[in-house]
Queue: 3 jobs
Job 1
Amino acid sequence: MSALLVITFIALLLSAYTQYTTNMSIAGLVDASSSLANHVALKTLAYEEGEYTKEYVVDLQKIPLLDFRQEIGGENFMFQVTIRYTAGAEQVLGPYGPLPPSEGAVSSISVPVTVFDNYRFETGKLEAKVWRA
Amino acid sequence: MARLRREERGVSDVLAIAFMFLIAIFAGVLLHAYRLDAVTSAADRQLQLKAEYAYKTLELSQVENYSLSYLEAAAENLLGLGDTVVPENYLRERIDNMLNYLKPTDCSIMVELTNDNRSWVQISDNQPASNATQFTFSGDVTIIVAEAGENRVAQVQAKVTIYR
């Protein structure tokens, strides 16, 4: 009987550990997608006006500069970006970057941004799909 | 004379074993609940980020056909300046469209500007439930009011809230 109890407890422990690692892995991926979207909007694609960088404003001319592989917290991630904005009708640019894997976890995030297009600041959205490389 | 054999289990033994199984099950539930909220917390952090970005988008992007940003135009209307650049009805319609375009899935988004006793409130959907989780980002919009003699600086408090 005590052997059965010990086996039950070990099985519970293993199951709980598996669930814990899965949860932490998903939470890490969700946080990585937030960080990547933030990095793209505030740095990589940020519109530059003279020597000033306008954060939260996406410059469409800088899209070719995107590096779709990034290291965050010692882990490598790949991502794909789509930009939507409303200049009259909705314009959709992208997706840019590699295709997400058909298997494995992919985290998706869409953040509001301002898009600089044709000398105007338009309302837009930056969508990123992120997965572990 | 009745004799107790060592192998026979009494009621107290059965109760002790049942109690140990209960403890094992309780421990299992506790172990499975450990850091169960990690994914929810990460999703909450995303919504907080989206509230910040929604505020910045309202602050930076220009109203269609005008060169003013949404928050500047709303602040001008709120202050009741005589010669507002963007008409109120047109601005309300544009902000409605914008909020519906920007709101995250299954969430409502509200923009609120206040100055003294005046306020300008617009929300993407109906009023959210009182127990809805809120993610807020706020700031100030500064408007320079041209007055006879000298210019005056007026500040309007702006707040963007995402309800889930």
Note: The first helix of chain B runs from residue 11 to 33.
Job 2
Amino acid sequence: MSEYQPKLIYEDFNDSLHDLVQALGGYKKVGAMLWPERPVEEAAHALRHCLNKERREKLSPEQVRLLLQRGREIEFHGAMSFLAEQCGYDVRPIKPADEAADLIRRREQLHAELKQILDREERLFRGPLQVVGSK
Amino acid sequence: MERKNSTLLKALKDVVYHMGGAKRVAATLWPEKKISSAHALLLACLDANRREKLGSEDLIAIIRLGRDAGLHSAMDAFAEQAGYSRPSPITRDEERAELERRFLHALDQSKQMLDQLEGIQGRLKLGGKDK
């Protein structure tokens, strides 16, 4: 669990992301994670601007997702909960073990679906058409 | 990163498409702008190769529009990719109940802090008398 004490109430989504950035180690660390190609100070500055609603700079949806994902990894769910709540949803973090089980379940589903498709294909091509073709 | 992974943008585009298209959604998001410029801006925001990006409030508004119409792909994409369970839509009543619960929790915490503060002030007064 993250040792950072999250705020009780957020003003807006940017406020919750700011809290998340603090929990992840601050603007320099997180800025460098988002823009590894930029000098640290510049990246930190850019991130501050992105979370300031008075500024034009914004994070891309993928960068927001990355922050939320890093938050989940340190069990800091404030920003994700805020986003979900504002959008009218309830979400729960998935533990890595559950995630692995979920991936296995989905892989098995996909395999079963693929097998069904292959079976149908086989039936189709072994049907009358193939018989006609072989004559 | 942005150009390689555009699943989220695709999910947002799906919602916009199903809500009547970029022009209609842009007019809802930015009623103060001219329809043509709002439309162009939204198209740019949904294009991973453009610099324009959706603000957090716009992002929420699009996901919310989808949710209200029963289209959950955008929130599903965020949750799944960030390692969360499939989000379940909550009703307005549930939302209100949750807000009430959090309000009461915040009140309770505030009362606890006040009690602690009074305790500290009491000890400080006692300390003052000792001197």
Note: Residues 13 and 73 of chain A are 19 Å apart (CA to CA).
Job 3
Amino acid sequence: MTACPAPPLVLPGGFLDHPDGLAATGALLVRLLSGARVLVAPHTVHVHGHQAAWSSANVDARLAASLLKAQASAAAAALGDPAERLVDGLERAAWGTGVRQLHWGDPAEASPDEISALVKAWAQHGTRTPVSDDVFVHRTAADLPWRAGVEVGPAPGARVLVGVAVPLRGEHAVAQAVAAAALLGTPHVGRIPAQLRHELGLCYGSMAVPLVRGRRVALVAGVSTTTRFVADCALRLAAEVRAALSPADPQRWLRQARLVRTVAASRVREGLPVDAFGRCFLEAPEVGDVPAAQDAADRPAWFAHGPVPDAFPDVAREAW
Amino acid sequence: MVTALTIAASGGVLAARLPSARYLALGLVVPTGFALDAVGGAGSAHVAEHVATRRGAAAVEAPPALAAFTRCHATVFTTEALPEQAADAFGALAAAVTDAPVQTQVLDQERTAVRHELEVTAAEPTWRIGAAVAALLAPETGLAAEHAATVANIGSLSPAQVDGVLRDGYRPDRAVLAVVGDLAPDELLALAADAGFPTDESTSDTSPAVRVPSPGEDPDLPEAFGVSFLLPGPATGPVPPWASAVLGGLVNPRGPVASAVNAPPLAHSVMKCRYGWLASVVWPGAARPVPVDPGNRQALVAAARKAHLSVHDGLLVPTQVRDALVAQAEGTEACLAARLRPEFDEAAADDLARRLISAPNWWRLRAGRAELLETTR
């Protein structure tokens, strides 16, 4: 143990590099052992004020059980945020499974031995500092087939989340998704708030993000609305997303995306949580090229969560 | 880790240098809010906020994302910018603070947007419990007025009512601008001055007018009970920089109050208004007050001490420093410079904890209103 403040510690690897279901548990374990703040970033675990020799730590069954419970609670709490729910729902609608399912996993899958092995494996990697932006990017991902379709989920309350995910392919797919997402909207400024919220009064909150999982790339956009506007929102969302695939000034939107990335990276670098919006931009590799305009590679996947009208699946298929 | 912050203030501008900052974080505080809405004009400050946000976005070539929040006595706009985007960010905030009359079409659109917002939040009853409790215990703070605007009454808002809010509050000389970045405070002040925000002493009083809201019934409130503690806010006198930590610890779910009731709380919060802070723990269902063990006071003060001494550690990125300056400008937190001073008055903190613990306000929600229960004193 040392009493001196340590520089930021970066543990290489994240939930895409470790056994299913164990990365988040490992992060919680590090937090417990080091008594420090820790964050499960897309690709990295950061620990500040690291003060414990946790590389030799052994984990007993009771501690493991408590960590697994905490992991499940943390995953459930994260999905309490509408933006997280939207991204997770669209990812599952598009690829049949989401990062949360794949890599946070079912707590029952992990054993104390596995957790202990994971912590030792991390420790053996050593540390590096300072944090560079490229550690956030996913290196690998299973190449799951695209599932065009409509998924509907219930939720209490009056809020309905409606979203659409559009698959993109080709060498400019990431740049196109990033630029289009920045054009469509930060939560407050962009085409979706301008058109659906201000002009037409169809929704309240909105979000558009690139969703990059290895070679899989999608543009995701969604709004928060009430039951009676769900159909109109789906129609207008489809129109705005289509238009955004051929932006007039893509460099401007790449610059805007760079700001989102900088703000989010600054939080991760300091061990602070990042919201779904910033995280999705961080998960996309930084791009400098002007994306070539191209259409979607396949039909989109739709998602709606809340008191959704029965006609939604038909409306969504008709919209796109 | 200790954040190296340099803070400066001039006129209506608060500036802070954060050497690690890679972007600028800006905040604009306008002296109007939902507790200041004219009688019969509930929601006018909120709609004015939407109108100002649109003006800010429309005024510059590449508008930054402008987040906006209407609170009881202040309306806050925040944004971030890369150094090369600074001109647009300052320009958008400057454009938000204009008192031009609102166009009918814009008013209609933004009234609809606010109605949607109210519709969604109205379905979450815990959101409104705080307002009902404030109406009972602290109507003078403005916290009770948070839900005066409803889906039903927002439609009757007139252009004149929104214009009144814009005319009175949306002026550069009545606003406070907070700017944080890796630039010397003088440079940040100069950028603000270039954008039209006064940095001399010519600014007029930025304090909002005070209006006591008239709380109404809220038929959708759930059955619940709870305990609340009250402290005067910064506008009514000096607040010790660690007072917030004492209140927060008091209503922490693992703190001395929550542990006195043998059931998990539904919610806990510290609502802040410039005229008073209201800390509450809420449980579902109906129950009687229970005594709070004063023996926990020492742990509470120790936790507050730790929280006070680690304020620096919580100011790691520009948005956090900006938000702390905004809270200072709103009058909902003690001055940031005071919060950063290392002194912690153990005896005074202990005295505050003792006074708070000995004066719990137990209440329950019934028939759409909060009512005071017999206390355990």
Note: Confidence is low (pLDDT under 50) at residues 1-12, 35-39, 41-57, 125-131 of chain A.
